Amino acid sequence: MDGGAAADPVVTASSPARYSFGVRAGGYGFRNTAHTELGEWDDCRMEGAGVFGQRSLTRYLFAEVGFDLYTAKDATPTPEMPAPMDRISGITSVAGGARVPWRWVQPYVQLGVGLEVTRVEMPEHATPERALLPMGFLGVGAELFATEHLSIGGNVRTNVMKHFTHGGGHDHAAGDAASTEMTGEFEAAAQGQLFLKYQI
Questions:
Q1: Helix, strand, coil share (%) of the chain residues, nearest 5
Q2: Whether the Cβ atoms of residue 94 and residue 64 lie closer than 8 Å to each other
């Protein structure tokens, strides 16, 4: 009998998975100020997909890094929007979160920041706009565990991102340079995502 041998560590079912990764899809949109009475968040609608990885710091806290690629949903002219915005954005984000570690369903909250690499094109502007922009978000979500390692879930987020203004066109008083300049400001965007995650 070897009384000096160290006992093997015990891993319980309640121990958090140290690492996990997944795929997600969703979209976001800015508030439509042209029809504020409708309360729609469908201005500059963007749809896309991404990948993410997480690490559990404790049973309740986790960190996340992700990359998502979004494109404008309505980039073709219509009678309602004769001069639509064509936009493509790649967003790299990092976030911290806190979860409720229930057995089958785990609600959580997240706070994150990121960088958006974007290209915006509008018919009324001669030159596309390319920019590297900061962004941030606050989100809530939940995941349902189908197996011990596989979960599905969804979240809703409020993003703070730059929204480029439709219109503007050519300013004859300012000269030709005005037609290449796009204006915008940081606004809130409503986002929803669905995801599939595997825990190692």
A1: 5, 60, 35
A2: yes
- Token pair for residue 170? 């050519």
Q: Is residue 183 helix, strand or coil?
A: coil
Report the Cα 81 to chain-centroid distance in Å: 25
* DSSP secondary structure code for residue 116 in this structure: E
Q: Is the separation of the CB atoms in 113 and 102 below 8 Å?
A: no
**Domains in the chain with CATH codes:** 19-199 (2.40.160.20)
What is the value of pTM for the model shown?
0.80
In one-letter notation, the amino acid at residue 159 is N
* CA-based nearest residue to 162, from 135, 124, 141, 143: 135
Residue 76 class from Cβ within 10 Å (0-12 exposed, 13-18 middle, 19+ buried)?
exposed
DSSP string, 64-102: EEEEEEEEES--S--SS-SS--EEEEEEEEEEEEEE---
Helices (H) and strands (E) in the chain, counts: 0, 8
Q: What does the pLDDT look like over 17-67, one tens digit per residue?
A: 689 999 999 999 998 776 655 567 878 899 999 999 999 999 999 999 999
| pLDDT tens, residue by residue, 107-146 | 999 999 999 999 998 887 778 889 999 999 999 999 999 9
